[in-house]
Specification:
Helix content of chain B: 55-70%
Shape of chain B: flat
Distance between the termini of chain B: 29 Å
CATH topology of chain A: Methylamine Dehydrogenase, Chain H
Number of strands of chain B: 12
CATH architecture of chain A: 7 Propeller
Shape of chain A: globular
Largest sheet of chain B: 6 strands, mixed
Number of domains of chain B: 2
Distance between the termini of chain A: 44 Å
Largest sheet of chain A: 9 strands, antiparallel
Largest interface: A-B, 53 and 53 residues
Radius of gyration of chain A: 22 Å
Strand content of chain B: 5-15%
Number of domains of chain A: 1
Helix content of chain A: under 10%
Oligomer: heterodimer
Strand order of the largest sheet of chain B: 3-12-11-6-7-8
CATH class of chain A: Mainly Beta
Number of helices of chain A: 2
Chain lengths: 381, 634
């Protein structure tokens, strides 16, 4: 009888113990090309905005993403919008007059709060997305009268808001685009970036499983059309749009081709409404993994990668350069390499609550600033 | 408070006090049971005496029901494991047991096991974590009850039942408490307790549960020793297996110690008498310097002892038993450090039970009972003494039976007084068992964690009777909602951050679950939340939160917001703290629930911090439902 009672208790316990946990799909997991790092920066003539992770980077609940800003002639300052836990990541969209930041979902929060500032981060207005923001650097973009956001649902869904950043309407999704016959050569896997071109039209970047053509799509009179160029020397295979931005040099895209040890990067620019593109030389990654990407004030790209048997490196491509230019060996612990508003480069080295900034001078990298960040450890768990 | 961290320590005074209280109450029940049984014994003995006087059989010797006394091997296993269960039960009284057992004992033992073992063990851990006081107290009485049951019932149905219960509970402990003794995990070693102490309790219990005829030949002992021989040889091979880290005192050049050294040094850190700590430290140092030698000796002894058990040769077996006992004793003291120090030790580990089992096997071979001739007309008490010769002779001298007069007519008259007394003791032992099993079964069937858990985290609810501060705010549809408009309803009022990533969604779901528990029997209940974030407080955000949590479909749920001035007024009126913190942290704010009765009076204030685990959350739901019911009827 006692054993029977024990069995009853056990059975009841089995019911009580049944539970399941769900988790959001890991952004970038299983990507075709290099995993797109969320650590990123965008520079203009006035200010550079960068996002990077700080805190205890081996503990998700004590990893807090920060926005830092460097205004010309000043030092780096913390500009993380307050009021929301940033453990799920941050993405920013920069305009000369305003910045829009989006929080990635984390723990039990499944939609993305937004924060908008028109005074360089002195005050922020709230907004929200109906779902989780895609975990890519260019998931948000602001136009004159509308904002676009890339959500992580359905392999990527683009939504638009023309009002208070709380009401959004669907524009397209990866699933819809994959059914467009004109785009079938791409084999869309997911959407990876969004921007507005010089005319204010949406431009969507994608991860393509085949085709050898940059996965860039823009609305046309008949729906959606491919707007990306073919890539010299690449006739087929996967491509992935890593960065997509409107710059002084036109619409700029950072695109990867191939995968694994054969992955290469290309910068590409269009100044005539996406009709033609200038494509840079290739940068072979040789198996290294990207850990940060930055858009320079002139519309170029600075990328940092590590692994593949070599030390971490940073490399620059500008719209006018014929070749990628390697920067000097990075300081130890660098997680982000950014362009500065005045045309220089900074390496950001976070160590828990301290962000060390190394500027690139004629003698190489030299520490120029230590920024103390008051991280609230334990506040998210 | 979200953003401030929380948790439940194993020495939580609320839980410790509740544990002591539960044990005291259950002890009181057992005292009453003891008194009842004593009265029963007195009545039965009196009736028995009077009937014997009336029948003129007062001086008669009532025959024993058994043709021979309890076999020595069975007696060893029964008494020794009875004492072990008693000791284990007393260890369970340690104050850290309710909260410490899952985290300090169960989970670590499952840590190196495969996923399916961890999942299975998690079932037991969940029950314990949800009902720590009940489970810990129940375990005390179950183990004490089994121990007494084994000790007081030497023969017959009661005794075999005690063996079966011992085996059944041992199996539960082996699976859920010891994760199958770690046999599915990597790095398991005989020295560290593999294949688990409880498995020997199971074996011993099964042997005690077997019929008496099992012990009449040497076969059972031989089989038992063969099984132990296979175990010893297998453990020796595992111990000798290259690459498992046992051949070196230092794991590798950059490490400070090897596997056995690690274990020994960890044991030395445990709170214990200085003498045993110094022994263990000494052995740890010796092992670090002579790791190969120690492992070589252990491997040789394990294989040698196992081989002797498998040989079937009684002389070799005797040497193996002695060597095995010495090895077990040395391992128990120098490696396992007695097994029960440190505040959450649950048993003396595997060496003592293992030594008892193979010693029992040896006795079962060499000390056999002999069935005595029983006179037909006069049942006799036969006593057999040990008489095994070399090779396991199965006969021995027998004391002649005592003659008895004719048996009386009634069933009571046929009972031997000693048997009656032992039966009453057995009933008492079963009573002790039930005092543990019954609440454990009820707790296991209850999916909601005990309220004591959340009281341990948040304290007891404040009972008050003051008018609730009025407010008028805006719901997710933009409509004004005032507290006065909710008159006639019991209101559960809380304060939530719509973009909170941790506590707030849990608190909202706790409110919903508590409301479901309350049902419709307590009148209308309104669940009302007020935004508690000075930056993210638009109706779009409250609506998004409701959609996220599925609360937009709940008719009696309302999430209110307002202008910052209105919100500050409500926060002030209800003593809610809000702090915007920098650098990517969420807004820190109070976790609190006000229960307002249908007349607009605040009656209960609860801290709604959901704690650090699902058990605390479940506990809060039960507490909240209880309080809502109470307020609804005020």
């Amino acid at each position: 009888m006692l054993i029977a009672l024990g069995a009853v208790a056990l059975g009841a316990g089995a019911l009580a113990g049944c539970s399941s946990t769900g988790s959001a799909p890991a952004p970038g997991a299983g990507a075709v090309g290099p995993v797109i790092p969320l650590t990123s920066s965008t520079a203009s003539a006035d200010t550079t905005w960068a996002t990077l992770a700080m805190g205890h980077l081996d503990d998700p609940l004590n990893t807090f993403w920060q926005v830092v800003a460097l205004t010309a002639g000043r030092s780096w300052e913390l500009a993380t919008p307050p009021g929301v836990a940033s453990n799920g990541g941050l993405a920013v969209a920069v305009r000369p007059t305003s910045v829009l930041a989006g929080f990635g979902p984390s723990q039990f929060l499944r939609f993305s709060p937004l924060a908008h500032t028109a005074d360089q981060g002195t005050s922020w207005d709230p907004g929200l997305l109906p779902a989780g923001l895609a975990r890519v650097p260019d998931a948000l973009v602001q136009g004159d009268s509308e904002s676009l956001a890339l959500l992580r649902t359905y392999g990527g869904a683009v939504v638009v808001s023309t009002g208070d950043l709380s009401t959004w309407k669907p524009v397209t999704t990866a699933r819809v685009l994959s059914r467009v016959p004109a785009l079938s050569g791409c084999g869309i896997r997911s959407l990876t970036a969004v921007t507005l071109d010089a005319d204010g039209r949406p431009l969507v970047g994608a991860s393509c499983t085949r085709g050898g053509q940059a996965g860039l799509f823009a609305p046309s009179s008949t729906g959606w059309a491919s707007a990306g160029p073919g890539i010299p020397g690449v006739s087929r295979g996967p491509t992935e749009v890593i960065r997509l931005d409107q710059t002084p040099a036109g619409t700029a895209a950072l695109v990867s081709t191939g995968s694994g040890i054969g992955a290469r990067l290309f910068g590409m620019w269009s100044t005539n409404g996406l009709r033609t593109w200038t494509v840079s030389a290739a940068l072979a990654l040789d198996g290294a993994a990207l850990f940060s990407t930055g858009v320079t004030g002139a519309g170029g790209f600075v990328v940092a990668a590590s692994g593949g048997g070599s030390a971490p490196t940073a490399t620059l491509i500008t719209p006018t350069a014929s070749q990628w230019q390697a920067l000097p060996a990075l300081p130890s612990g660098t997680t982000s390499v950014t362009a500065t508003p005045v045309g220089g480069f900074d390496a950001l080295v976070p160590v828990q609550s301290t962000l060390s900034v190394y500027g690139l001078g004629s003698q190489g990298w030299a520490r120029v600033q230590n920024l103390r960040v008051d991280i609230q450890y334990g506040s998210s768990g | 408070m979200p953003g401030m961290g929380h948790g439940l320590q194993t020495d939580n005074p609320t839980i410790a006090a509740a544990f002591r209280s539960a044990l005291d109450h259950q002890l009181l029940i057992l005292v009453v049971l003891g008194v009842i049984l004593a009265l029963g014994w007195n009545v039965a003995r009196t009736v028995h005496y009077r009937r014997a006087v009336a029948a003129g059989t007062l001086d008669a010797t009532v025959a024993s029901a058994w043709p021979y006394p309890e076999p020595a091997a069975r007696r060893l296993l029964r008494v020794a494991f009875g004492l072990l269960w008693l000791f284990d039960g007393l260890l369970q009284i340690q104050g850290a047991m309710p909260l410490g057992l899952p985290g300090s004992v169960i989970t670590p033992s499952a840590g190196s096991s495969p996923g399916w073992v961890q999942h299975l063990v998690n079932v037991g851990t969940t029950i314990w974590s949800d009902h720590p006081v009940t489970a810990a107290a129940a375990t005390v009485w179950i183990q004490v009850g089994i121990g007494i049951f084994l000790l007081v019932a030497p023969r017959g149905y009661w005794s075999r039942s005690a063996g079966a219960v011992s085996a059944g509970w041992g199996l539960m402990v082996w699976v859920f408490g010891e994760s199958f003794g770690g046999i599915f995990g990597h790095g398991s070693s005989w020295l560290f307790g593999s294949p688990g102490a409880a498995v020997f309790y199971v074996v011993a219990g099964l042997l005690v549960a077997l019929p008496d005829t099992t012990w009449e030949t040497a076969r059972s002992g031989r089989l038992l020793l063969r099984g132990m021989g296979v175990l010893f040889v297998g453990m020796g091979v595992l111990q000798a297996w290259p690459g498992r880290g046992f051949w070196s005192g230092q794991a590798h050049p950059s490490a400070t110690s090897g596997t056995i050294t690690d274990m020994v040094r960890q044991m030395a850190q445990v709170s214990q008498p200085s003498v045993s700590a110094s022994w263990v430290r000494w052995f740890g140092s010796f092992q670090a310097g002579h790791g190969w030698l120690v492992n070589f000796v252990v491997v040789v002894l394990l294989v040698g002892v196992g081989a002797s058990f498998l040989s079937g040769n009684l002389r070799l077996i005797r040497i193996g038993v002695i060597a095995g006992a010495v090895l077990c004793l040395a391992t128990w003291v120098l490696v396992q450090d007695f097994g029960f120090f440190g505040g959450v030790g649950t048993d003396p580990n595997s060496m003592i039970p293992m030594a008892l089992v193979f010693s029992g096997g040896y006795l079962a071979m060499v000390r056999l009972p002999t069935r005595s001739p029983v006179p037909e007309a006069a049942p006799a008490t036969a006593v057999t003494t040990a008489a095994a010769g070399p090779g396991g002779a199965e006969t021995g001298p027998t004391r002649p039976p005592n003659p008895t007069p004719a048996a009386p007519a009634g069933w009571l008259d046929r009972l031997h007084p000693n048997y009656l007394l032992r039966s009453l003791f057995a009933v008492g032992a079963v009573g002790i068992l039930l005092v543990g099993v019954a609440p454990m079964a009820v707790a296991a069937a209850n999916p909601h964690a005990d309220a004591i858990l959340i009281e341990a985290v948040n304290g007891t609810p404040d009972l008050v009777d003051v008018p609730a501060a009025p407010f008028t705010l805006t719901d997710t549809h933009g409509q004004p909602v005032s507290l006065s408009s909710l008159a006639g309803h019991t209101v559960a009022l809380t304060f939530l951050d719509p973009v909170c990533t941790s506590d707030c969604p849990l608190i909202a779901q706790d409110l919903r679950l508590a409301d479901q528990m309350v049902g419709t029997g307590s009148g209308p209940v309104e669940l009302v939340a007020v935004v508690n974030n000075p930056l993210y407080n638009t109706t779009a955000l409250t609506a998004a939160f409701d959609r996220q949590e599925g609360l937009d479909r709940l008719a009696n749920w309302t999430f209110l917001t307002g202008s910052l001035g209105q919100l500050h007024q409500v926060w002030n009126d209800y003593g809610v703290q809000t702090e915007v913190t920098p650098a990517g942290a969420m807004v820190a704010h109070s976790d609190i629930v006000y229960l307002i009765d249908k007349h607009g009076h605040t009656r209960v204030i609860l801290n709604s911090d959901p704690g650090g685990g699902s058990a605390e959350g479940s506990s809060f739901v039960g507490q909240l439902a209880t309080q809502i019911r109470a307020v609804a009827h005020q």
